[in-house]
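Reading a protein record of the kind used here takes little practice once its layout is understood. An example of such a record is reproduced below.
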Amino acid sequence: MKKILFIGFIAIILGVLMGFVIYKFSIKDSNKFNVEKLSTNITNEAIVLNGKNEIIEVTKKEVKVSPKATLITKKFYKSCSHTIEDYTEVPYDIVNKTEVEIKNIFSDYIIESFSEKEIIIKKEIDGICNEHYVLRELDGSVAIYILDEFNNENLVQITEISTKYLPDVDLYDLKKGIFVKGRAALNRAIEDFE
């Protein structure tokens, strides 16, 4: 009877030890899996596993500008509070550049966003933007003037739109000057006269 109890006791101890060893190996394997999974999403950081002080360095994948990337240039004009955005393909000389290199190239801009497919840079400028227009009557046609920072009107174009057949209300507005902000608004105003 003592022999059976002794064998049972040994079997229980061996079972507990085997369970502990299996548990330790399964945690180690799952941590290894989690590190591999996390390292694809985290760059240049340390990972702490299960509250332990195990630190694993993850190498940083350096993001570079793609040849098909878009460069978005935003210019904010302080005097008129307008932002003019310009969308272009990146110039050849900034392809394969890093964010740090782009900061050096566009040192007078702030980088709002940087990825391999899109760069957004912004700059604040004193004065007004070049999208303040005035429509007036000139020699029987609708003329487009642009305003400078001192509100001087500079002739841009005399359209082919004759004022001869326009209603009196439109003629009155043209004599006062129709002020328009932005190219889209200018195009709509011109279309209204056609």
Summary: Residues 15 and 24 are 14 Å apart (CA to CA). The chain has three domains: 2-57, 70-125, 132-193. Helices lie at 2-39, 99-105, 168-176, 183-193.
